[in-house]
Amino acid sequence: MIKNRFILTLLSTISVFPGCKTLLRFLEKLWLAQFGNARGVFHHYYEVNAWGNEESVSGPGSTLQYTENIRRMIPQLINELGASVILDAPCGDYNWFGAIDWKTEITYLGGDIVEPLVERNRSSFGNTNRKFFYLDIVHDFLPKADLWLCRDCLIHLSNRDIMLALDNFLKSDIFYILTTTYPNCARNHNIPTGSFRILNLELPPFSLGSPIRVIDDWIEGFHFRQLALWERHTLLDNLASNRFFQRTANRHRAANPENGAGNTALDED
Ligand SMILES: C[S@@+](CC[C@H](N)C(=O)[O-])C[C@H]1O[C@@H](n2cnc3c(N)ncnc32)[C@H](O)[C@@H]1O
After folding, report:
1. In contact, 109 and 143? CB cutoff 8 Å
2. What is the residue extent of each domain of the chain?
């Protein structure tokens, strides 16, 4: 375990040297392959606390200090949207979300790919309005909710897995996605799932278009980033010309011929 942690740190440290990038990507792929799949990789990260933070196994971006702004802004946004059922996937260790001061009642659905973490959350924080369960956002059907909070996760997935997760959202019965994006990132690079890079979801190959709302999710010493909100119906229109999403967009159009762009999903209820 210590050996793996050392290799992980070494790979991310030397990756800043330009000439080493291709070789490093190859070595990283080999290293990640030992875990078999994404479930194995993130399970390992949990076991060794790979993101090396003492307060949260979900990493330095999940501390109370880091999340001060989003903990204040998310309840306001949820209130404005009239949303009450939130899917938080991945939920990580629920460190910061559990410290939100809610003014309205919400139903919380927390999903993560790491079973022991889900189990730990369930026994420490679970109740009738707060459920934790195993969920792979890339391959599993997403449960019905008003809003999907997908924070700090797509940055660890390959472009293809991100596309699959987004397609999952388009197929779901969820009105909004609130997810991490880095608006100053000029180009999206591909990585193997389990690695890390920053991402701008407005740029190819994702090209989600402009978000309808953003919340700064950043503190000094880190890359500037935001939580950005998109509406599923709008994305179904924006992404209809992208070959990857065409099938889902066409199926949706065939099932809902009366739905044009700009419908506010929550208004339809
Ligand atoms: C950096 S943590 C962020 C957790 C949480 N969103 C937060 O803001 O604290 C990334 C989390 O993504 C989870 N994860 C990675 N791939 C996943 C997948 N395909 N489905 C669900 N969870 C996944 C990991 O287990 C880990 O808990």
Report:
1. yes
2. 2-48, 61-268
Q: Please work out whether the CB of residue 151 comes within 6 Å of at least one atom of ligand 1.
A: yes
With beta carbons less than 8 A apart as the criterion, state whether 42 and 79 touch: no
What's the pLDDT tens digit per position in 74-121?
999 999 999 999 999 999 999 999 999 998 999 999 999 999 999 999
Q: Determine the distance from the C-alpha atom of residue 4 to the mean position of all C-alpha atoms in its chain, rounded to a whole number.
A: 25
Q: Which of 87, 96, 107 is nearest to 165 (CA)?
A: 87
Q: Is the CB of 57 under 6 A from ligand 1?
A: no
What is the phi/psi pair of residue 251, to 5°? -60, -40
Distance CA 141, CA 111 (A): 12
- Cα dihedral sign for 161, 112, 173, 77? negative
Domain 61-268 classification at class level: alpha beta
Q: Which two tokens stand for residue 231?
A: 């509406």
Ligand 1 center–CA 153 separation, angstroms: 5
Backbone angles phi, psi at 215, to 5 degrees: -130, 125
CB of 232 shorter than 6 A to ligand 1: no
